């Protein structure tokens, strides 16, 4: 039986160039970026009611687009997404007047237990079914497009039925969602699996990319960890260039989530992303 039309909405987004993830610890720095047109905020860190953090409100007041990025919906979980979390997510999107929202292709809880981490899914058709069902449930409450981010994973489940590119593409096709491509995750997964990161770029629908995450990482005991606390390495910047040569995304966003460096180092990272992508610098 054919699936019913998805309530998830897609659209062509304007070109936002290079942006950064808004965090309270660097709010003053982000607010002071003269060329900033795009930022992202963790959806669960924003109250659905009451005042917004001053730095975040300042961005909205000057016309910067702010995208809520979820980390706790558990779209890949076997259970339906939690209604209260969906309601909060939708309210934050409306409050920020966001043109889209984003979440992960992952699960964070099972059987009522919260893992506290984004966990990878087995690349099976059953997992595809679970993600698609939950994205559709989310789409019934969120009135803007949804972008899905494949995560960095330190392990793969045994007996995967689909390649990573097939898994991502099938989820996007069946859910109607857009793609949040984390180029640092592409690098991390390929490095840990001993595969070519360009293979993924050549086999996922780049025309569905809503925006791109760029982040740093570090090797520990033979595995590369997507830390968000280290500087963006040159191989990730090289992948940004490869991506933009294939299909230039509407926006690329620097992710930092701890161990924040001094302003000149953040500026250098933003400038490096701009140079790698061909977009103007925001600093």
UniProtKB/TrEMBL annotation:
InterPro entries: MbnB/TglH/ChrH (IPR007801), Xyl_isomerase-like_sf (IPR036237). It comes from the Bacteria. It holds the Pfam family MbnB_TglH_ChrH. This is DUF692 domain-containing protein. It comes from Paractinoplanes bogorensis.
